[in-house]
Design brief:
Helix content: 40-55%
Distance between the termini: 40 Å
Structural class: alpha/beta
CATH topology: Rossmann fold
Number of domains: 1
Strand content: 5-15%
Bound molecules: nicotinamide-adenine-dinucleotide
Largest sheet: 7 strands, parallel
CATH architecture: 3-Layer(aba) Sandwich
CATH class: Alpha Beta
CATH superfamily: NAD(P)-binding Rossmann-like Domain
Number of helices: 9
Order of helices and strands: EHEHEHEHEHHEHHHE
Number of strands: 7
Strand order of the largest sheet: 3-2-1-4-5-6-7
Length: 247
């Protein structure tokens, strides 16, 4: 049988890389979309070395023309897209509200929310005629609790939850499910690199389960939301956070 195609945005690193690997281990054909050419190529080679399928397309997913071109390339190469996992995102600056510049605000909203909007819009053009498909978007614990000095990031992640619920309602009659994964503290290089050993031990040790998540554990949740194991689940937010918040 032809392998199902999963597009993983931000799949060059971190949770996205773990998700691409998980899907390839389960027989899917992952396509990684990421702006980081070096890390993207390295992840694609890593997948190939494991005899798994793995394609990489470089794109800045805040740019509509690049998103459109990337999805056209995928469709002409693979002929189908079964799953979209929107993971490109993150926060690169924290700060008190008076210090957040309009440029920083826009950068954060674009990186998290606009990429999710543009990639969803692009994939729906292919999924609607097929009458099936799954989209998994990425929020964060901060999208439900808010977080001091993370106003832009928390606002973008809360918006992703509302966006996903709206899209789930709109697309259910078309056989397309839309859900949200909300990771808690997860030990990706980007996040881990913000703290020294002591700070990290204190932060992760203070969580109810006494440790941060591994990227693979978030990938497990994403995989559940993407497969028929969850075929009656849409508009939901799955919190994978070791008890950090229980909304
Ligand atoms: N790690 C955590 O603790 C944590 C917690 C909650 C939510 N999240 C969310 O999970 C997602 C992944 O986080 P991560 O820690 O794995 O991040 P990461 O930085 O390890 O990976 C993000 C990837 O996105 C890519 N990317 C960034 N901007 C892009 C753009 N404009 N176009 C295309 N690609 C782009 C990066 O190159 C990178 O490969 C993010 O949405 C983040 O907000 C992470």
């Amino acid at each position: 049988m032809e392998a199902k195609v999963v597009v993983v945005t931000g799949g060059a690193r971190g949770i996205g890389r773990a998700a691409a690997l998980r899907f390839s281990e389960e027989g899917y054909a992952p396509v990684i979309l990421d702006r980081d050419a070096e890390a993207g190529a390295a992840t694609a080679s890593f997948l190939e070395a494991k005899q798994a399928e793995g394609r990489f397309i470089q794109a800045d997913l805040t740019n509509k023309a690049e998103v459109t071109a990337a999805f056209e390339r995928i469709l002409s190469a693979c002929g189908r897209i079964d799953v979209l996992v929107n993971l490109a995102g993150g926060t690169f600056h924290k700060g008190a509200i008076q210090d957040v510049t309009p440029a920083q605000w826009k950068e954060c909203l674009d990186l998290n929310l606009k990429t999710t909007f543009l990639c969803s819009q692009a994939v729906i053009a292919a999924m609607k005629p097929a009458g099936r498909g799954v989209i998994v978007n990425t929020a964060s614990n901060f999208g439900v609790t808010g977080g001091a000095e993370r106003t832009h990031y928390a606002a973008s992640k809360a918006a992703i939850i509302a966006f996903s619920k709206s899209l789930a309602t709109e697309l259910a009659p078309h056989g397309i499910r839309v859900n949200t994964i909300a990771p808690g503290l997860t030990g990706t290089d980007r996040v881990r690199g913000k703290y020294d050993e002591d700070e990290w031990a204190k932060l992760s040790g203070g969580l109810p389960m006494g440790r941060a998540a591994m990227p693979e554990e978030i990938a497990d949740g994403i995989f559940f939301l993407a497969t028929d194991e969850s075929d009656y689940v849409t508009g939901a937010t799955l919190h994978v956070n070791g008890g950090m918040v229980m909304p």
